[in-house]
């Protein structure tokens, strides 16, 4: 249960951070870009670890 809650908080937190910096990357809708994917995953992992 704790992991699921951490994933939800990390998702919301990463979307808020990206909204503040006007960063938008959709893995399924946008062309593949390794730099943007790395930023997206790293921010999500940091938010997850902070929430856990």
Please tell me about this protein's structure:
With 52 residues, the protein is an all-alpha fold. It has one domain. Helices cover 71% and strands 0% of the residues. It has helices at 2-20, 34-51. The protein starts with a helix and ends with a helix.
Describe what is shown at a glance.
The protein is an all-alpha fold and 52 residues long. It has helices at residues 2-20, 34-51.
Tally of extended strands?
0
In the residues, how many domains can be counted?
A: 1
Mean pLDDT: 92
The N- to C-terminal Cα distance equals 11 Å
Oligomer: single chain
Largest sheet: none
**Could you say which structural class the secondary elements and strand pairing correspond to?**
mainly alpha
Strand content: under 5%
Indicate the overall shape: elongated
The tally of helices reads 2
The share of residues in helices is over 70%
Contiguous runs where pLDDT drops below 50 for at least 5 residues: none
Radius of gyration: 11 Å
Helix/strand order, N-terminal first: HH
Give me the secondary-structure topology.
Layout: H1 2-20, H2 34-51
Salient structural properties:
52 residues; mainly alpha; 2 helices; elongated
């Amino acid at each position: 249960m704790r992991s699921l809650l951490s994933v939800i908080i990390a998702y919301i937190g990463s979307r808020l951070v990206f909204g503040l910096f006007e960063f938008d990357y959709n893995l399924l809708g946008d062309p593949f870009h390794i730099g943007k994917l790395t930023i997206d995953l790293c921010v999500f992992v940091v938010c997850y670890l902070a929430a856990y």
